[in-house]
Write a structure and sequence with these properties.
The complex is a heterodimer. By secondary structure, chain A is mainly α. Chain A has 2 domains: 19-25 and 39-507, Cytochrome C Oxidase, Chain A (Up-down Bundle), CATH 1.20.210.10; 593-631. Helix content of chain A is 62%, strand content 4%. In chain A, helix 5 (123-145) runs antiparallel to helix 6 (170-198) and helix 7 packs antiparallel against helix 9 (276-290). The longest helix of chain A is centred in the first third of the chain and has 36 residues, at 80-115. Chain B is mostly helical. Chain B is built from 6 helices and 1 strand. Chain B has helices at 3-6, 22-51, 64-89, 93-119, 129-160, 170-199, and one strand at 12-13. The radius of gyration of chain B is 21 Å and the shape is elongated. Chain B starts with a helix and ends with a helix. Classes of the chains: A mainly alpha, B mainly alpha. The interface between A and B is large, with 76 and 59 residues.
Amino acid sequence: MKSPDLRAPITGPDSVAHQARLFELWEGKGGISGFFSSVDHKQIGIRYIVTAFVFLVLGGLEALLMRLQLAGPDKALLTPEQYNELFSTHGMTMIFLYASPVLSGFSNYLWPLLLGSRDMAFPRLNAFGYWVYLASGIFLYVGFLTGNGANDGWFNYVPYASRPYNPGLNEDFYSLGMVFLGISTTVGAANFIVTAFRTRAPGMSIDRLPILVWGTLTASVANLVVVPAVSLAFLMLWMDRQFGTQFFNTAGGGAPLLWQHLFWLFGHPWVYAIVLPAMGMVSDGLPVFCRRPLVGYSLVAVSTVATMILGFGVWVHHMFATGLPGIGMSFFSAASIAITVPSAVGVFAWLATIRFGKPVITTAFLFFSSMIILFVIGGVSGFMTASVPVDWQLTDTYFVVAHLHYVLIGINVFPVVGAIYFWFPKMRGRMLDEKLGRWNFWIMFIGFNLAFLPMHLTGLMGMPRRVYTYAPDMGWTTLNLITTIGSFVFALGVLLLFVNIVKSWARGKPASANPWDAPTLEWSVPSPPPPYNFGVIPRVASRHPLWEGRLPSNERSIIDQGMLLDVGKETIGTSALDAEPDMILEMPEDSLAPVLLTLGLAGVFCGLIMKVWLLSAASVLVIAVALVWWLWPRRSLREREPAHG
Amino acid sequence: MAESVTAPNAQLPVGPIGRRGVGWWGVGTLVASEAALFSYLLFSYYYLGATAGPNWLLEPTPDLRLALPNTILLLASSAVAWWGERGVLRQRRAQALWGFGGAFVMGAVFAVIQLHEWQAKSFGIGTSSYGSLYFLTTGMHEAHVIVGVLILAAIFLWTALDYFSPRRRLSVSAGVLYWHFVDVVWLFVFTTYYLTPYLGFGK
């Protein structure tokens, strides 16, 4: 028999001939079918990032339109209806279509490289997750562009969202689109979890994981169990609207608060899911520029998990003003205050890393370190609203808007832009322009604070969020004008990032394998990495495989020789905790099944929104065909006995 | 750890052997997410039931004459599927085919009886929040049963094509795991909708 069940992987040195063989095995097809069938995590990761940035730009343009409307009192640039759709679509876009997918993109690209693996655990599922994200994003934007976008805020409270008060298709697009998008988030989370536990390089025990892996893993566990809550809530809403169910209708025994519980059961853990991986980027990137390991690695890792565990118990702090019993509110208030403890651990670890290191000021360093300041500001304003009486004063004012922008832009956008400066050389093989980078950073940083710091005052002075205009005698005029100016300055800063990328794409300074002299495995492979990532599977002996010679320890990782695994498209599977090799994983070839499955799902949702039930039913058949094709046991993946069948 | 380079590597399984394979973990995460979905459905039931006024239950004494035997049928199908999996393990293909085929038939019968159960209800999906939840929850479960029996059919077909051996059988074990989940989660649905009214919930 050609393919035995057991094999001892051959260990040897990396070589040109070996790499040529791997290239043959791993390089995807070109052309259109190659584009749609690729399962390479690096391509998928970059697609996630690019798509997320397209949505960031769309959401940003929506914000700028709103800021023009609010630049002065009694402006009539936008009608109230247009304003409603803009703020709702802006929130939906930034939170669901940018903030989470962009982190998935980085983690998809980076994880196998950080973990010393050749791909994610489920490459086809990875491609599927991306296509569903893209399709659901388009679905949601078809609604918006046809005047049927979400118009009840991103958290979409009933009864505003119920049909009698909102008769158009707006909420139907939002509901179905969110159920659709939830599929992408869920399969992505499952893939990250299994990848983290099963496909690390030998020796990479869990106390040697980069913090980015801790962050995304923690977020993924949360997503896996909380996304169903919001999918269910949106499904119920759609049924209430279209089939006369009574989930949220008081007259029929339903409860509007059920919506709020289900939404925030999901919503608050989700907030941590879109910041923990970004904090992980800072925890991994900042020390590189401080020229020393992160201070308090174990504490930071444990705090990441602790933040999420506490994050499951704070959702009611979004509902303090809904008339809940005092004892319940006390519990959730206490949990919301307690969560500052693990959050602060990260802050002190980063500060100590800078204090005890020898910082090299680069653009990436500026973005990473400025995040600490923005996180503290956003954290303190969050801490304030965790107190029930303060929250009663501030809820639904611009104070909350300022808080959530400090959190989401401060802890997501700033680290992500820093991550682009840090990892672009790895992805593209060229450096971004540092001089332009400084302009990029300072204009973004000044513009952001100019826009959002005064907004706290606007809120304290009583301006409610989500109003499309205000009267001249309210005293909010100057502050609003400053915010509008700041938002345009901020947008200019973001524009400079794109200018820098375009400029450096072809003409940037060539990047070596390790241009920042960084310690982790992704910097041991060429920039950009070959399709198989690692010629030989490294053996990891510490948290900083590339810094071992200069740190006071005797551990030595082995990078230039290791398991060759060049019999087929293979990588190594390792045990969950101590990462000892326990099987050879056969990796799937490129496949069109993920795209076909996505098309089937898209057909189902298009049929539902148009009420063309036949289209939905036919699409279910497409789904069934795609799944059977996908899951059919294959000899090449050793899913069936080669001698049989 | 220089010794790990020179020492020959141990013999490792190539691809999934038995349940060892990433696919097993994948189905595990799927089950975890689906279990969360059902827990939110039941949360909605208990939340609305606890906050609603009197007479929220449209059927204070749910009829068990069809529901209880049907529940037993579904649970028994789990055992039959397990017995089929044992057939693959012992290389008894006939046993495996009877197991998967039997579980398929029992699952399908459960699904049909469930349709009758729906028709016999005195209320509809729009009657009240209780009715909406009853039909959404049992409907969601019915959808899982349909997917589950289709998986059993696929496993039956692949076994008939002689694809599996005691070592190469991850598809079988993963599919049967999913079927166990579909059956176990019904116990929670059944307990909530058919038994807790007798214990006084929602009265």
